[in-house]
Design brief:
There is one protein chain. The protein has 324 residues and is α+β, with helices and mostly antiparallel strands. It has three domains: 4-73, Roll (Structural Genomics Hypothetical 15.5 Kd Protein In mrcA-pckA Intergenic Region, Chain A), CATH 3.10.290.10; 94-172, Pseudouridine synthase; 179-318, Pseudouridine synthase (2-Layer Sandwich), CATH 3.30.2350. The chain is built from six helices and 16 strands.
Length: 324
């Protein structure tokens, strides 16, 4: 497939006339092939209105293209960043590894990949020291990454070790075929013992670093189950959350939206003096998925609460009246 660059006064773009071989393909896959970008970046481009087909902006990634369609991606072609340096001094617990998949138990305080204010000391740089082959997997600035955990969220995280696994896992995550379960402590006790929070999430127009429930946002669904409740010193609950989608700060935004903010979450109204916690109480506790290369093989992993969060629970349990 031939790639042409279209120059304009202030920027550049990718332009491609769809050949017969790509007729019927989803536009997100076509854009990924044209640009070499990850599915995550392609989704961002679609959401931002940067992809056009026959001079019409396309925001639906499942849109199918036809032979002769003209697809334009209104971004400057990326010449690529400097290669990341491996950092062998950072230790990351490995839960499982094979030729295609890596499952890690991310420690709290570790940023997943370099970004503004975090050029070094990241998880991917630690992984490059152990598995240097992932340097060519996915985007150069976040090799092997198919999903992320926030800096102050601990627990299980999935990475790709092969190009085939990266492509398949990205698709599986987009199609909600990877089961991700989190444990969180929230303020108050949800009235329903379990439920589905179905509310779109988008970036705040007032505070760009925050996410909010917004009709203009992307679909977001979180299923929750109350596991344990506490009345002292104030009502709160240990909740299991299962992601049906994977939006930025999804659990934090959804729980705050139903007036049960995550304990310790200073960004979404979750810090209160009644309970002292060393950080946000959010832990990626379980992952389950079909192997991306051997689909007849089911993989499942569990991570116990780390000591800092387990200590908060033990203290809350000690506040319960005898026999409660």
């Amino acid at each position: 497939m031939r790639l042409r660059r279209r120059s304009r006064a202030t920027d550049m773009a990718y332009t491609e006339v769809i050949p017969s071989a790509l007729a019927g393909e989803r536009i997100d896959r076509v854009v990924a092939m044209i640009s070499g970008a990850s599915r995550t970046r392609v989704t961002d481009w679609l959401d931002d209105g940067l992809v056009m087909c026959n001079d019409t902006v396309v925001k639906t990634r499942s849109r199918r293209v036809a032979e002769g369609d003209v697809v334009v991606i209104d971004v400057e072609p990326d010449l690529g960043p400097e290669p990341l340096l491996a950092e062998p001094d950072i230790t990351v617990p490995i839960v499982y590894v094979d030729d295609d998949v890596i499952v890690i138990d991310k420690p709290v305080g570790l940023v997943v990949h370099p970004g503004a204010g975090n050029a070094t000391g990241t998880l991917v740089q630690a992984m490059l020291a152990v598995y240097p082959e992932i340097a060519s997997i996915g985007e150069p600035e976040r090799p092997g990454v198919v999903h992320r955990l926030d800096k102050d969220t601990s627990g299980l995280m999935l990475m790709a070790r092969s190009a085939e696994a990266h492509s398949e896992l990205s698709t599986m995550l987009a199609e909600h075929e990877v089961e991700r379960t989190y444990l969180t402590l929230v303020w108050g006790i949800p009235e329903a013992g379990s439920g589905l929070i179905d509310a779109p999430i988008g970036r705040s127009t007032r505070e760009p670093t925050k996410m909010v429930v917004s009709a203009q946002g992307r679909d977001a669904r979180t299923r929750y189950t109350v596991l344990e409740t506490f009345q002292e010193p104030v009502p709160c609950a240990l909740v299991e959350c299962r992601l049906e989608t994977g939006r930025t700060h999804q659990i934090r935004v959804h729980m705050a939206a139903i007036e049960h903010a995550v304990v310790g979450d200073d960004r979404y109204r979750g810090v209160r003096p009644a309970i002292e916690t060393p950080r946000i109480f959010l832990h990626s506790a379980a992952l389950e998925f079909d192997h991306p290369v051997r689909p007849d093989e089911r993989l499942a992993f569990v991570s116990e609460l780390p000591p800092d969060l387990a200590a908060v629970l033990e203290w809350l349990r000690s506040q319960k009246p005898t026999g409660a």
